[in-house]
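User: Assemble these into one structure.

Assistant: Restating your components, then the assembled model:
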Amino acid sequence: MASKTKTSAGLQAAKPAAALSNEEVLRYSRHLIMPEVGMDGQLKLKQAKVLCIGTGGLGAPLGLYLAAAGVGRLGLVDFDNVDFTNLQRQVLFGTSDVGRPKISAAADRLRNLNPEIQIDTFETHLSSDNALDILKDYDIIVDGTDNFPTRYLVNDACVLLGKPNVYGSIFRFEGQVTIFGYPGGPCYRCLYPEPPPPGLVPSCAEGGVLGVLPGIVGTIQAAETLKLIIGKGDPMIGRLMLFDALGMKFRELKLRKNPECPVCGEHRTITQLIDYAEFCGIRGEEAPSTVTNIPEITPLELKTRMERGDDLFILDVREVHEYQICNLNGHLIPLGELSRRVHELDSSREIVAHCRSGKRSADAVDFLRKAGFRKIWNLKGGILAWSDEVDPSVPKY
Amino acid sequence: MAEIEKEEWRMAVKVIIPTPLRAYAGKQESVEVQAATVAEALSGLTSQFGDLKKHLYTEDGRLRSFVNVYVNDEDIRYLQKDQTQLREGDTISIVPSIAGGAF
């Protein structure tokens, strides 16, 4: 067994390792002939244990490059199934994987890529109940998750366990990368003490993401992970890399350890994992909206009323580019423009507001009710539900 | 300090708008403002783009805790916060937390 002595990197010290097999020497020859890796580095890789949280957009390049590089033990955590919208960027998966659990599809792909390594799979939601148990066996944690509660959970678990967290996150065409939780270095809470309130920052599902962006950000995370393992180069500890794919610019900002940090500061108040959904202000798993008591109409009710010839005004609060994908022939006012375009609406008419899933239009209905509109309903489930329940020829996106 | 004199102390600085907030800043990547301090620069920005205000500040006027502001590569929390003095040509970055990754 590997020595339990920890190096400053939180990595287990190299044991006088079993040598590489002839097959491995051949497989890793481009590493072995490079002095920065060499036999020494390759053996460190072989003994390394890395946990990738999320096998989606960031997890795909991470998994592929860490497996290819010969990281000896690779853990994967995900609970999701592969769907068609994933294939635009999650290059671990193929069309024939749609419907399969991501974790099985990922493990198959990575075992095929490199049968020399051990792949551990955790088909589960990472939670406060299981996180420490799952993370504790790994040297380095790579965070490729997609939501704030899990980001804070991974951060706190890494700080509590003293493990580095190679962090990457993306939005549309912009990414952030750094290493949190390295002993002595800053953590995620040093950078952002609190998450945004729900609804203020759109997720990738709402905001979209350029398919190649997670590829770029994920491969940077993979490079940082490999550097930590082999102990070469200048790791991104205390440095926050901002990447803008449209401007094709990398910028670097200083990241400081916050002495007041509640989890890694001198007077820490968080000494165990907490309820992260509550911390992030999320009531349910997928709080549909921050507003409640919104009058709703179902797609079937709307269809019936339209067929009856009722005078209904359809208000579409999505963006122009979404309207181009599909629409219900409604009047388009993107949610962000609603406050200054209210005059386009007639409060004496019956109005049905809709968006993609019903969330933005709930905000629109809430806003318009406060503005005095009384005959207004939110289309429940949005144009997605319309496609499911009324007209399957309307494409879902 | 006399008004005119104060005016002379204002510097031309560039504020870089992050992707999630560009929708509230006329879809621009960056905005030039004249300001002597970070507070002045941000108030110049929000007076130009009113919709930005609620994304940058809480209702009681504090900078939101998931939004960091940098002057060049330094976090203003470790300088003089929003009273940090600006020099001609400084770049202010607004860096909100983003969580995307998998899906």
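The longest strand of chain A covers residues 165-171.
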